[in-house]
Amino acid sequence: MPRLKTHSLATLIAALVALTVSCGKSTELTKAEEADKQIENYLGSKPYTYEHGVYHLTNTPSWGYQVNIGDTVLLWYVGQVFRSDVVFDTNVAEVATQAGLQRSTQPLRMVMGDDNFAKGLHNGLLLCRQGETAQIFCNPSYAYGGDWFGVIPPWSTIAYTVQVAYLNGPGIIREQQLLASLDLSGLTPDTSGMYIAITGTATSSPLPSPTDSVYAWFNYSLPNGNTLHSTNQPNTLMPVAQPLPALMLALQQMHPGQTATVIAPSPLCYGKQGSETPAVQPYQPLRLEIRLDSIKGR
Asked: Is CATH 3.10.50.40 the classification given to domain 12-168?
């Protein structure tokens, strides 16, 4: 029997290793794609977000701060196999009892950026806000892959239901210190987190709704007065559902002919990301001056 040359044997071994790795990657990729399709079919037309490789669906919305790398989070959660009754982990007492799990029923403490938690849960939390209840869905590549993990079968899609009970971090602390230094006299705290003062006569007509369009003028600036953006002329037609949440929320509290001054924290402005145009730093509160002229069609 002829002997294989050393370099031929090495080439054969390398080819077999490459084939094995390739097959493994192919299986993982196929399973991930199948899982993503199942998740998208399940979510349908619901207003979900896909980012960081996971799906996020808000159940109970909040205008709180969004979770960021470096933040400390206290979390209520339920982890289960997607589209099944298999709950594999939770710190919610009632759910743990029903599932027959003996777990801590205290909020889970996470420091975002640590590698001690499932990647899908970590990445999904980066899309959540303080006070929000949400669902996070992730394919096996962001969960437990092709191995059994406790009661979780190989290649399982995972669904988490989460509520961020507490959130704090460097950016939040800096912004709260800045807000505490501002003169907020004459402004009233709003449930959304902004401070607002509305002047002018309130009428008996209905307030604008998110589906209305209005004629209005606005200017928003940094707290020091540097203007960032404003309408080019008075009586500009615009939808109430503005990309800037603070403007949208303020318009819904105003009657035609009224003006408003608003100090809005960053979750109601450009959030943890900030903005390039206009140039706004992360965790930057803004000052808004708004006048509502009329509501279209009324």
From this structure: yes
